[in-house]
Specification:
Layout lengths: L9 H15 L13 H24 L1
Helix pairs in contact: 1-2
């Protein structure tokens, strides 16, 4: 039987904190569709969320 999960990977916690900070920063280009960097920021955020999901799934399965 596997031991219960007691710790969360540091990288996952850092990513989740970064995403939270980003989404609470209403001056960031991700919140302004007319900003020239909006599309790039959105793609980067999607990639970061995907990476966090992979880390989370790996952590939950192990």
């Amino acid at each position: 039987m596997k031991e219960p999960l007691t710790t969360t990977p540091t990288e996952l916690l850092e990513i989740e904190q970064f995403i939270d900070d980003l989404l609470n920063d209403f001056q960031h280009p991700i919140h302004n569709r007319r900003h020239p960097q909006h599309e790039d920021c959105t793609k980067a955020l999607d990639n970061l969320v995907e990476h966090a999901d992979k880390l989370r799934n790996r952590w939950l399965i192990d």
